[in-house]
Write a structure and sequence with these properties.
By secondary structure, the protein is of the alpha+beta class. The protein contains 15 helices and 23 strands. The strands form 7 sheets. Strands 17-18-16-15-21-22-23 form a 7-stranded mixed β-sheet. Strands 3-2-1-5-14-13 form a 6-stranded mixed β-sheet, sandwiched between helices. Strand 15 and strand 16 form a beta hairpin. Helix 4 crosses helix 5, helix 10 packs antiparallel against helix 12 and helix 12 crosses helix 13.
């Protein structure tokens, strides 16, 4: 039997455990568990750290059972990689192993007043004041701002910091710490791709930065050790995989870049999940965007390997808009119905949807924007809304692709795509039409998990997976060519941008709120 490599994929809406053949990259077996999101107040998004860990253990055990049914010995699993939702922020007690608060999810908006306070103390009140070191604007999106809120508002976190019991981490750190022993000697670490999304990490020195920590008033002793994306961090101490090394760690968008084999400068991928994330590999040079994109660490494949960077365009709401149509409006019974519903009309009939539920991310970075549906007439029905929602995902991608083309000076000839939404053929065709370039969907749906499995299998001390160009697995793909003329595409895009302007500056923080989130 060829060696196997496993991936823990802890996403915003679900956890998965997947097992790949290290020689062929074939997916052998997997299991998935949905994660509950909590919305205690408007704009707040939380998840239970214990539920996250429980879902991981459940996925591991169910997958191991499935492998047993296939007569595959789990002893063939030589390594485990961890990929995760980025920026989501946790603080826990290293003595008891207990979380000190729910995980604050990357989408969460409670820190808007914290962001305004931090920007106000920057020279010239410039939200890009820290960008040269971090590659990021000061925004509700990133971990340091969420951590600052926890330190300011949660007594248990303050007390644990004062008594030197607190540990901070993004989801990867929490997962690796728990799996390697937790309070009984768990490893407190993160990788460069996750660290680069905290705003506490200097993307040039590749380490935590004292000045950044002082800016956010964060004690450095609570931070995890920063490691490369491909090395042995520790060994599994529980579950059916006791003794297997954890040897790969990548934030989910970096993992998708690796899984799409985008190892060369200029190669670009877009992942359609809860949000939408377009990354372009810029090689070993950190390129600073002039058009609202982020500069992020893509990966570092080993202790002694160079770090690779990416330009990134982040869209907060992509797949989440479909979930909203289902859960909040009830116009879908299941998310998978949207393609059929939208296809019945084949047009939005002049209806435009800007799903700025968490403000607007790239290229605007405008937290005051809110969702808007405009162009409604008496003729508009739920099918038109469904179509407009899919178009919104495509228009948002067009905005960040335009920004990326301007930053690089080299227009992208085609777009490689992956993620859960790419099974929607109507969406893929719409995307090609709105971008006016071909869209190439990977035949491997699980590119994020594959990417971190590759990193784990290639680590020193494991070496069951080769990342040499000649050894990379060949993955089939499907190409969608644009089918409408450029003039129509430009007209629709211009109308969309008009709708975006209407969504801007909707929310203000001038009305102060009481402890229950009620305006007063």
């Amino acid at each position: 039997m060829d060696p196997l490599v496993a991936a823990i994929d802890q996403g915003t809406s679900s956890t998965r455990f997947l097992v790949f053949n290290a020689k062929t990259a074939e997916l052998i077996s997997h299991h998935q568990v949905e994660i509950n999101q909590r919305f205690p107040k408007e704009g707040w998004v939380e998840e239970d750290p214990k539920e996250i860990m429980q879902s991981i253990y459940e996925c591991i055990e169910r997958t191991c059972e499935k492998l047993g049914q296939l007569n595959i010995n789990i002893a063939n699993i030589k390594a485990v990689g961890v990929t995760n939702q980025r920026e989501t922020t946790l603080v826990w007690d290293k003595l008891t192993g207990e979380p000190l608060y729910n995980a604050i999810v990357w989408l969460d908006l409670r820190t808007q007043s914290t962001v305004e306070r931090l920007i106000n103390k920057a020279p010239g009140q410039d939200k890009n004041h820290l960008k040269l070191k971090t590659g990021l604007p000061i925004s509700t999106y990133f971990s340091a701002v969420k951590l600052r809120w926890l330190l300011d508002n949660v007594d248990e976190v303050q007390e644990a910091v004062q008594s030197r019991r607190a540990m901070f981490g993004t989801v990867d750190s929490w997962v690796i710490w728990c799996l390697t022993g937790g309070k009984h000697g768990g490893v407190h670490c993160t990788d460069v791709s996750n660290a680069s999304r905290t705003m506490l990490f200097n993307i040039h020195t590749m380490d935590w930065d004292l000045e950044l920590c002082r800016y956010f008033d964060v004690p450095m002793e609570i931070l995890p050790e920063v490691r490369s994306s491909s090395e042995i961090y520790g060994w599994m101490k529980s579950s059916s995989l006791v003794g297997v090394p954890i040897s790969g760690c990548l934030g989910d968008q970096s993992a998708a870049l690796v899984g799409q084999m985008c190892f060369k400068e200029g190669q670009t991928k877009n992942t359609y999940g809860t949000g939408c994330f377009l990354l372009r590999n810029t090689g070993t040079k950190a390129v600073m965007s002039q058009h609202g994109l982020l500069t992020t660490v893509a990966y570092k494949m080993g202790k002694h390997q160079p770090a690779y960077y990416a330009l990134e365009g982040s869209v907060a709401i992509a797949g989440a808009v479909v979930r909203w149509l289902k859960d909040n409006l009830g116009i879908l019974q299941a998310s998978s119905e949207i393609e059929k519903l939208a296809a019945t009309v084949g047009t939005s009939y002049g209806c435009y949807f800007v799903p700025a539920f968490s403000g607007l991310y790239a290229p605007y970075w405008e937290p005051s924007a809110r969702g808007i549906i405009c162009g409604l007439t008496q003729f508009t029905n739920r099918s038109h809304l469904a179509f407009a929602a899919l178009e919104a995902v495509c228009f948002q991608t067009r905005e960040i692709l335009d920004a990326m083309n301007q930053d690089s000076g080299i227009p992208l000839a085609q777009l490689q795509v992956d993620g859960g939404m790419t099974v929607n053929r109507l969406l893929m065709q719409l995307q090609a039409d709105i971008l006016c370039i071909p869209v190439v969907r990977s035949g491997m749906a699980e590119t994020t998990s594959l990417g971190v499995a590759m990193a784990a299998g290639a680590a020193d001390g494991v070496k069951v997976w080769s990342l040499e160009p000649d050894d990379l697995p060949h993955v089939t793909s499907e190409k969608y060519e644009p089918q409408i003329n450029t003039e129509e595409s430009e007209f629709r895009f211009a109308r969309w941008k008009k709708a975006v302007q209407k969504a801007m500056n909707w929310e203000t923080t001038e009305l102060c709120c009481n402890a229950d989130g009620q305006q007063q």
